[in-house]
Every structure is written in C-alpha cells, then in structure tokens.
Amino acid sequence: MGITLQNVDYTYQEGTPFEGRALFDINLAITDTSYTAFIGHTGSGKSTIMQLLNGLNVPTKGTVFVDDIAITSVSKNKDIKSVRQKVGLVFQFPESQLFEETVLKDVAFGPQNFGASKSDAENLARQKLALVGITEDLFHKNPFELSGGQMRRVAIAGILAMEPNILVLDEPTAGLDPKGRRELMTLFKTLHQEGMTIVLVTHLMDDVANYADAVNVLEAGKLVMSGKPADIFQQVDFLESKQLGVPKITKFAHNLVKRGLDINPLPITIEEFSEALKHG
Predict the structure, then answer these.
(1) SS3 labels along 129-163
(2) Residue 175: φ, ψ to 5°
(3) What tens digit of pLDDT does each residue of 196-243 get?
(4) pTM of the predicted protein model
(5) Does the CA dihedral 259-260-266-268 come out positive or negative?
(6) What is the model's pLDDT at position 280?
(7) CA dihedral (82, 193, 106, 136) positive or negative
(8) Sign of torsion, CA 82 86 92 93?
(9) At what angle do helices 248-258 and 270-279 cross, to 10 degrees?
C-alpha cells in the first residue's frame, strides 16, 4: 500500500510567536517497492516530510497514511509506534544517534525495543552490520572510536535491524568521501532490488537519475512537480530557475541542443547519452 499524504500541512511551534509554516497542502503517494526521491533547496520542506513519514512528527492538518495506519494531528505515540518499525528513518548525520557502549549493543537496541529477545536482536545486529560492511572485529568497540564513515554505517545498520519495509534517507551520504558515498548508494540500490521501498532526500541530481524511479520537487513547502526523473529533468530551465539544476550529462546535452544538435529527449544518464549519439 505504501505511503499517501492527503492535504498535509505542517507548522512548527504552532500557536507561539515563533510559529512557522513548513508545508502547504501536500498531496502525494509513495508506492510500494518504489525508489522515490525528493529534491528542493534548503527550507523547501524535504526534511519535514521525512519526519512525517515515520510519525516522528504528526501533521498539523491532513493525514499521512502508512499502509492502513492513519496519522493525523491528534495521533498519539502509542497509536503510531508500529509505523516506526515499518518506516526506518536515517537522518542526515545518523551517527549522532549512536549512544551504546559497543557497536553490537547499539544496533541490537532497536529490535529489543520492539520486543525481540536479546539473542535474536544480537543475531539481527550481526547480519545488518555485515550487510553494511562492518567487520566482526569492530562489533565490541565503542562506536565513537570508529571513523566517521564507519559510524554512519553502524547507524544505518541500527535502522535496518528493525527490519523496516520502507527506508527513508535524508541526505544519507552527506560528508562522506566519493568512495564511501558510492558504497552506500550501492547498498541502498541492492536493498531496493530486494523489494524494499526507498525514499531519498538528496541535492545530487545524478543520484536521482541513476537510482530513483519517481521524483517530487518541493519549493517553499509546496509540491511543485512530480513524475519520473526522465520527464522531470527535461525541464532544465524551470529547475535551474528554482536553483536545483539537473544531472551533469543532461546539462551537457542541453548545451549541445542550444548549439543546434538534435537530442530529444534529453538524456539523464551517461548510458542514455551514448545511445542518443548512436542514433542521432
């Protein structure tokens, strides 16, 4: 069933002198097993939507449906606890969520919190740590003795250990070197191919083109465009007017079109560009 947002508004610190409207009448659907990206510049509402998807925040108005669970402004924690197991949220710097004295204990904490026995939770933790590339010699180290990239992987393993159906990633590769970024994006691609729904917030348009099958464009708390990446990225001038840009190869092809080359539609990946030249 996936996730559906119906007429969703969100206001921070509502009813105080500091209140600020972050989302305006958002309507969208994230279908099961999709890889959906959200793009928009800082302050567009991307992170706010991510925190609504797993019940970390509840909408000020409207409804967020996660499968058959409805989250509204009056929803209580106990009513939506199961949503946080269905929808795993990985923050921009998830290593800031680490707190246990060993890597294994940290990753096992989530499953135990949802009722798994200590042994079952530790078995799950071992599996997910291996999946993200953390070797057994690190299991009993303090998480804060690890490198930044290793801490990021441990934090992601902690989310995966709760076995969510949907993985929500808010700029998950921020601050990583190119090798670490590629490895994590490959991991998320594999999880998607195995049937997990992936939701990605990113400012890297090449990642949207290479991995996502749906994209939502946000501006100042409003949904201004939705569709397939191949369609959305045809709107080069529009996206650049919103300070967003397009994949590098799309921009390159767009410049060639301006000089008279016939390329239609604009490619969004290197492979598509190569094909366009062959048949051009």
Answers:
(1) HHHCCCCHHHCCCCHHHCCHHHHHHHHHHHHHCCC
(2) 80, -5
(3) 999 999 999 999 999 999 999 999 999 999 999 999 999 999 999 888
(4) 0.93
(5) negative
(6) 58
(7) positive
(8) positive
(9) 30
